[in-house]
Amino acid sequence: MINRNVFDELFVLELANNHWGDLDRGLRIIRDFSTVVRYHNVHAAIKLQFRDVETFINRDFRGRQDIRYIKKTVDTALPVADLATMVEEVRRNGCLRMATPFDERSVELCERLDVDLVKIASSDITDWVLLENVARTRKPVIVSTGGASLRDMDAMVTFFDNRHIPLAVNHCVSIYPSEDHELELNQIDFLRARYPGHTIGFSTHEYHDWTTSIQMAYAKGARTFERHVDIKTPDRPFSPYCSTPENVSEWFSAFKKAKSLCGGPGSDRRLLPPKEVAYLDALVRGAYATHDLEVGHALTDEDFYLAVPLQKGQLSCRELIRGEVLVRPLAKDAPLLIDHFDNPYSRSPELRASIEQRGLDGDAPGQVARMA
């Protein structure tokens, strides 16, 4: 079974019913978006929606053309063989296979087609019959929380935790499309604090901007991201909350920029690049003798002053230790070097190397004579 790390930096591209019941169109969408995924070299899943019309819609309502949700479900239904072809195409194009099942037979189809992950839609977060069936598959689950109460969210997380099923929790605003001011990105902070140990994601339906929200979501700690995707063709409508391959390419680029700007994980101190260390070392003051000093002299505050530049092998304001005894003489204005003392800095190869390699080369006029 795939472990919970499958969620980390995972992009979910939701095909939904945008194939319009046309297998060829569905395959084209999969191939077009897989091409963008490969170009950007990201970790991605392409997600289908599974509904078994015979059980999902009451037989007395299947012909209702005035109920949009029912009409679209019926009009876009695909036979199982076509869904299997699409799932296999996702695998062949290097993406994870994912599906949102809306009924028990669709959960069985997830198992039969061996999808890698299962999604729970916001509308089904309290559908315990469906959740029980999903849990029995033992597959990793991503759940969206749009419109759910806190009590229902807690119960759902506890349900999957008790069954030791990897779970990611998506912040989601179930408004299609969403305006920028409706995104409520601070909910990512809330979910991270509420459900530690779980990957928190961002399922988004805004339509003005493909860069800002993902960059802010990543900076806040979201690590899985979801969008509806589609292609524009003259024969079919295009929903404004969907993203084209060009939009998704921009989305991936924005993610990479956010990741670069944020750097390493916030749980640890960042690794300092050598060029930054060298730059800061150049601003550190080094210790210089205020007058001639003899061997055996114990250093006092009156024996040195601090000034830039710091030279190679010179003790800085960071390491200077009052009371240290000189083992070599020092002339006035000469730098206090590591070799003037017998202490942990001079005896430790690692500490010695760090001091000898930083700062400027000691080529100031008359320095050689002063170091004698």
Annotation keywords:
alpha/beta; two-stranded antiparallel sheet; 14 helices; 15% strand; disordered C terminus
Description:
- With 372 residues, the protein is α/β, with parallel strands linked by helices.
- The chain is 37% helix and 15% strand.
- Strands 1-2-3-4-5-6-7-8 form an 8-stranded parallel β-barrel, surrounded by 5 helices. The chain has a two-stranded antiparallel ribbon with strand order 10-11.
- Strand 6, helix 8 (186-194) and strand 7 (199-203) form a beta-alpha-beta unit.
- Helix 1 (23-40) packs parallel to helix 10, helix 5 (104-112) packs parallel to helix 6 and helix 9 (212-220) runs parallel beside helix 10.
- The chain is elongated, with a radius of gyration of 31 Å.
- The chain starts with 9 loop residues before the first strand and ends with a helix.
- Mean pLDDT is 91; it is low at 364-372.
